[in-house]
Amino acid sequence: MGHRENLITAARECLLKAGYARTTVRDLVAASGANQASINYHFGSKEQLLTQALFDLNTEWGDMLFAVLADPADEKAGPERRWARIIESIQEHRELWFVNFESVSYLQHDETIRKINAEGQRQARVALANAFGDLGPDADPKDVHAVGAHYYSLLVGTALQWLTDPDEAPSAADVVRADRLTRHTSR
């Protein structure tokens, strides 16, 4: 691997270990074996390197989430199995969720991170609407957006609860039960 690839690998490791704000140039240099000039040469700045690593990590996690949502075995098992797999993924990738929640604080000042988050949300809304709302490619885009936003809110809220207080966080059965109760009482 070259310096660029080593820097990306190091940035990913540092993000997951220390987070965005706590990762220093010194950390990146030590973990990559490269030098500060390589960071500037390949990425322009430490922030741009970390943003690229964040994008790569989010893309990989998004692919995992979309695979869970599109798994035919889970489709037959129903929404509770899907939520169980989502919760398992949250637990397995806690560090990435922490980095993602940290990145929200950069949205106001970093257009690139804002765009990364916005695109990830768009993709997640569509996948969640398809998985939990049975809205396919021919569905009204407004319905897909609304249903997807609802389930995205559930996803993010569930993740935050699992990261904050796993002992009190909702189980997959709780999420599905509450969703059914909410839909039933809102009519």
UniProtKB/TrEMBL annotation:
DNA-binding region boundaries: 24-43
Transmembrane segments: none
UniProt-listed Pfam families: TetR_C_6, TetR_N
UniProt keyword annotations, A-Z: DNA-binding, Repressor, Transcription, Transcription regulation
SUPFAM superfamilies, A to Z: Homeodomain-like, Tetracyclin repressor-like, C-terminal domain
Segments forming domain HTH tetR-type: 1-61
InterPro entries for this protein: BetI_C, DNA-bd_HTH_TetR-type_CS, Homeodomain-like_sf, HTH-type_TetR-like_transc_reg, HTH_TetR, Tet_transcr_reg_TetR-rel_C_sf
GO molecular function terms listed in the Swiss-Prot or TrEMBL record: DNA-binding transcription factor activity; transcription cis-regulatory region binding
Domain of life: Bacteria
Name of the protein in question: Transcriptional regulator, TetR family
Species: Amycolatopsis rubida
